[in-house]
């Protein structure tokens, strides 16, 4: 489902606004969890996953844009990284409750999250950028004053800067062809695609989705698979929040290089361990290597490739 919504969301976000597009995802998640409660049918569960994927595609397209537009320049990189951090917090939340509640209770708890989001986010202001794009200057001023927790008079200077930026963007409105119109555009597009491919083809989603099953296959472990999975979630979350403070100081490139090299080494060690574990008995007494290698992969992923994919 996530494959089909980013492009439509990218178009609608400039027509409907950032806030309505984000709010529209809440009913999609609520309905999907209601379906989980109502049936155990495999085709329906597939439909649920597709529906949630559609919502995820909208969120990952619109939310980074919304965060960048409502945040000040000095903290924009950090807040954009925290978006991924909160995503990992959600994963940790599900890791932590999954082993200890029933199927129905798990669905009820998960369904409560989009309900809370819908009831709270509806009071958030629209992006000042979007409002200025549609010549709603007074609303943009009110929105910016609320976001900065300052008076309208205080934020007028910043609003003028945003207005000039919006005017420049509207005057030089780009099309899809501009993504590869010049060598610089093609280089930027290539860099973004390579980073995205590195993130997803490195196995991030598979490792996070099947961590419990992976650790349950490890022999001689002193902890349960669920314990290991929760620890992984904690490590990812802490690393992401730590990285958010370094994005605007160290820069994106060093963090990405460290992340890629670390992920490569960690996955090599994990693959080597499981190969030797299944083909020989050499590493039978070193089951900790499985956890350490996968945990280090998740940490290095959270240092750069994971959170920075949406901030470059």
TrEMBL record:
The chain crosses the membrane at residues 21-38, 44-67, 79-100, 106-124, 228-247, 254-276, 288-309. Signal peptide: none annotated. GO terms for molecular function: transmembrane transporter activity. It is a multi-pass membrane protein. PROSITE patterns: MFS (PS50850), SUGAR_TRANSPORT_1 (PS00216). Gene3D superfamilies: MFS general substrate transporter like domains. Its main location: membrane. The keyword Transport applies. The keyword Transmembrane helix applies. One of its GO terms (cellular component) is plasma membrane. Pfam families: Sugar_tr (PF00083). Keywords: Cell membrane, Membrane, Sugar transport, Transmembrane, Transmembrane helix, Transport. Residues 1-312 form the Major facilitator superfamily (MFS) profile domain. It comes from the Eukaryota. InterPro entries: MFS_dom, MFS_sugar_transport-like, MFS_trans_sf, MFS_Trehalose_Transporter, Sugar_transporter_CS. It is found in: Cell membrane. PANTHER family: MAJOR FACILITATOR SUPERFAMILY (MFS) PROFILE DOMAIN-CONTAINING PROTEIN (PTHR48021:SF46), PTHR48021. This is Major facilitator superfamily (MFS) profile domain-containing protein. It comes from Clastoptera arizonana (Arizona spittle bug).
